[in-house]
């Protein structure tokens, strides 16, 4: 079993905190002590596009990672490039045929309008704290706290986000810590008590325990 000192070096594209986070989590959590070494050299990566990240999160709401990827691939194929302007040109029927619900079509169009009309402060986000960004994002139709948290993790690469409503995190904690029994929000918080200030990293590895392919938005 790997010890913190035996962890592989992470490449230059890894978040600056990733190695330290892994050492912290291996010391503090019995499950992550075994889980992290099973994914050597892997780390969270951002797609670098705020609109695409939020759009992928909307597509992925309340469905499995596999189903979300399938729908996203069909949706993405409708555009030359996934931009707000391109989305606003799409026909509703074509978006529905890609597998999007009527509600998700509405949400994606509203998201595109917010970006096209510059109603979101993209340039200010890096300097804002997590809760301030969440408050701004949930003002957009169809973006709830879960979607905002996925944005914090996958786009802004914030290290200490704990998405309590995430199905993958709930299932992963249920299997790894509670023998498959359903878990409450308070039980998730209790498990994550030793993760701070790297809850995002721990969550990413818990996701890996369910699906070895890194999830991304």
From TrEMBL:
EC number: 3.2.2.21
Substrates-to-products reaction catalysed: Hydrolysis of alkylated DNA, releasing 3-methyladenine, 3-methylguanine, 7-methylguanine and 7-methyladenine
Family: Belongs to the alkylbase DNA glycosidase AlkA family.
Pfam families from the UniProt entry: HhH-GPD
PANTHER family assigned to the protein according to its UniProt record, in alphabetical order: DNA-3-METHYLADENINE GLYCOSYLASE
Domain of life: Bacteria
Keywords tagged on the record: DNA damage, DNA repair
GO CC, any one term: protein-DNA complex
Protein name, as recorded: DNA-3-methyladenine glycosylase II
HhH-GPD domain boundaries: 59-211
UniProt GO BP: base-excision repair, AP site formation; DNA alkylation repair
Organism taxonomic ancestry: Bacteria, Pseudomonadati, Pseudomonadota, Betaproteobacteria, Burkholderiales
């Amino acid at each position: 079993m790997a010890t913190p000192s035996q962890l592989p070096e992470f490449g230059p594209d890894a978040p600056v905190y990733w190695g330290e986070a892994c050492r912290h989590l291996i010391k503090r959590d019995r499950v992550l002590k075994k889980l992290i070494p099973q994914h050597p050299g892997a780390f969270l990566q951002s797609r670098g596009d705020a609109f695409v990240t939020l759009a992928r999160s909307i597509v992925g709401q309340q469905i499995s990672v596999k189903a979300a990827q399938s729908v996203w691939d069909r949706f993405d194929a409708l555009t030359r490039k996934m931009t707000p302007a391109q989305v606003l040109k799409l026909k509703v029927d074509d978006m529905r045929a890609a597998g999007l619900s009527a509600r998700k079509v509405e949400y994606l169009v509203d998201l595109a309008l917010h970006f096209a009309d510059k109603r979101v402060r993209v340039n200010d986000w890096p300097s804002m704290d997590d809760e301030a960004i969440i408050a701004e994002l949930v003002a957009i139709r169809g973006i709830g706290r879960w979607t905002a948290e996925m944005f914090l993790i996958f786009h802004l690469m914030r290290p200490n986000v704990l998405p309590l409503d995430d199905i993958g995190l709930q299932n992963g904690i249920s299997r790894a810590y509670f023998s498959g029994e359903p878990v409450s929000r308070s039980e998730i918080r209790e498990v994550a008590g030793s993760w701070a200030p790297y809850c995002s990293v721990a969550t990413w590895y818990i996701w890996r325990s369910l699906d070895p392919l890194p999830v991304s938005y």
